Amino acid sequence: MKIFIKYTGLIYIKYFFIIFVALELFYVGIDLLVNLDKMPSSANLKLIYCALTFVIAIEYTLPLSLVLGLITTATNLIRSNELVSFYALGIRKNSLILPIFFIALFFTLTQICVYMTPFAYAKEHQDFVKDAQKPADLNSAVFLRFENKFIYINSLYFNQNIAKGVKIFELKDDKIQNQIIGDEAKFNGNSWIISNAKIIAFSPNLKLGEKAITSQMIQNLEVLEGFSPKTIQKIYQSDTSYSILDALKSIQLLQDEAININKIKSALYKMVFFPLFAPLMVIIIYYYLPITARFASLALVSFGCILVSLGLWGILFVLVRFSQNGVVIPEFGIILPIVILAGFAGFKFYKNA
Fold first, then answer.
1. What is the pTM assigned to this prediction?
2. Residue 30's closest CA among 47, 51, 53, 48?
3. What residues are paired with 331 via a beta bridge?
4. In whole angstroms, what is the distance from residue 269 CA to residue 255 CA?
5. Helix (H, G, I), strand (E, B) or coil at 1
6. Of residues 230 and 273, which shows the higher confidence score?
7. Are 320 and 333 in contact (CB under 8 A)?
8. Which residue intervals of the chain are DSSP H helices?
9. What is the pLDDT of residue 134?
């Protein structure tokens, strides 16, 4: 490994961790002060609450820490004349930023991978701990459409994977073909198993003297393959949170149904694309920094870079909220701004090649 790569990389990691820990502790401290009257009395629950708050804060503090770490690292290199010394030794401008960029990209990809785990639901668990109660386990009167079927569930216990009072109406050519009735159904990880299911079939062509309705009983009937309780729960929640895998599964299941999936897309794009703001801003800001303190006031330059970074991050965050609320299309509100940033960062890198 070249010495300058190791040197700049270690400095960047040092400042990144200092800023990251400081922002995390600040976020947790402010959250505790705001919700002090809502905290549970148990010391164990308080510790769990703090740990969940720490995890939730990563969504906001990690991108900012990566960008602020670059600004702090570059400012110190400029002030000590180390940056201009690197250039004098023949190190290209692009070569100097690449190790920092890859470090920022590594932490960003790690954050995205975390969204594939149950840590993505930390906010839900924090609310449960704060309210000193277990997760709500009941949705009542669920009615929806899936795979040309109308489904009614009287009571859904999604934590236990149990549905009670199930009625399924199967349609063909916009006509009810048959009806499935069951007192209880259980989700086995892939599909629902209705115990003692009663199937009532309606004759499509009624003729005088023939039966219009036939019925039969099936002890264990398998229906609604892939339609998990978690998916049903998310459809009926106003403030939804997903992991990347659950979001992909929900989109795959619901894209052909008469259900608006823009909220699910927004959650997915937010987890996959929004964190890329940090490594892209690392590239962009680097090319606007002076090579020596004689060319500009470092205090003003640093303040300007921080202000621009926070401003752009705030604008992207607002666009994410607009996408989640249906004000703008998720592809335009989340993906397009990141693509523009990536294009501009690529242009600056190519220009200095």
1. 0.74
2. 53
3. none
4. 16
5. coil
6. 273
7. yes
8. 3-34, 43-79, 82-88, 93-114, 122-130, 229-236, 244-254, 262-272, 277-286, 298-324, 330, 336-351
9. 47
